[in-house]
Design brief:
Helices cover 43% and strands 23% of the residues. It is α/β, with parallel strands linked by helices. The protein has 2 domains: 122 residues, Rossmann fold; 93 residues, Arc Repressor Mutant, subunit A (Orthogonal Bundle). The strands form 3 sheets. It has a 5-stranded parallel sheet, with helices on both faces. Helix 2 runs parallel beside helix 3 and helix 6 packs across helix 8. The chain is elongated. 24% of the residues are buried.
């Protein structure tokens, strides 16, 4: 459950969003005026702020900019009907964490909030690691891609963890074999290829980030 502030001047939209999020057990507060929303965000701790771009009194860009200047740690998701690159970049430039274009489904928004909170927790929790939209919980050995739990074996988890720790480096099969299976392992390096294949099948079927380095081994981009 998260404490969420919605700053949205279209009452029908804000009420609909609040209703949907409360179904996921979130605590939701609504403000329809930009300045009042900014003051509320300043004075109360919120986990997530859903921030419309066009608002009376103070627009979403200025609200986000001022909150970040005050070191707000809330996960800020911009809500807008304007689906163009410039507005997205402007939002990210002032500190927004995510961007959702209207109309959006309740499940999509709830999923983005869960993924955002997980990333926020990772920043505060040293027992976690993040690569792109993949989160590794080093305590529970769980892996999420976005909002989805991806079941990995222990060895697949260890392989992914090692790749993330050494992202950008070309790692030989021998390095991976020694590190993950130990010096006493008497098998051949094909076991590495098998585990890379399985890891790709679960996390990277298009081979977008686990790349084969010809004649060497593998690397995470």
């Amino acid at each position: 459950m998260a404490k969420i502030l919605i700053i949205e001047d279209e009452i029908s939209i804000s009420k609909m969003i609040a209703y949907d999020l409360r179904q996921f057990a979130h605590e939701v507060t609504i403000e329809t005026d930009g300045l009042m929303g900014y003051k509320r965000a300043q004075n109360e701790p919120f986990d997530v702020i859903l921030l419309d771009l066009m608002l009376p009194s103070m627009n979403g860009i200025d609200i986000c900019k001022k909150l970040r200047a005050k070191d707000s740690s809330a996960y800020i998701i911009m809500l807008t009907a304007m689906d163009d690159e410039l507005h997205k970049l402007e939002g990210f430039d002032v500190g927004a964490d995510d961007y959702v274009t209207k109309p959006f489904s309740p499940r999509e928004l709830a999923a983005r909030i869960r993924a955002g909170l997980r990333r926020k927790t990772v920043k505060e929790e040293p027992n976690s690691m993040v690569y792109e939209d993949i989160t590794l919980d080093l305590s529970s050995h769980e892996v999420y891609r976005g909002d989805q739990l991806v079941p990995l074996t222990l060895k697949e988890f260890e392989l992914l963890e090692f790749l993330v720790k050494h992202k950008g480096q070309a790692l030989s099969r021998e390095q991976l074999l020694t590190k993950l299976w130990g010096y006493s392992y008497d098998g051949d390096t094909r076991v590495v290829d098998v585990h890379i294949f399985k890891l790709r099948d679960k996390l990277d079927p298009k081979q977008e980030f686990i790349k084969t380095v010809r004649g060497i081994g593998y690397k995470l981009l």
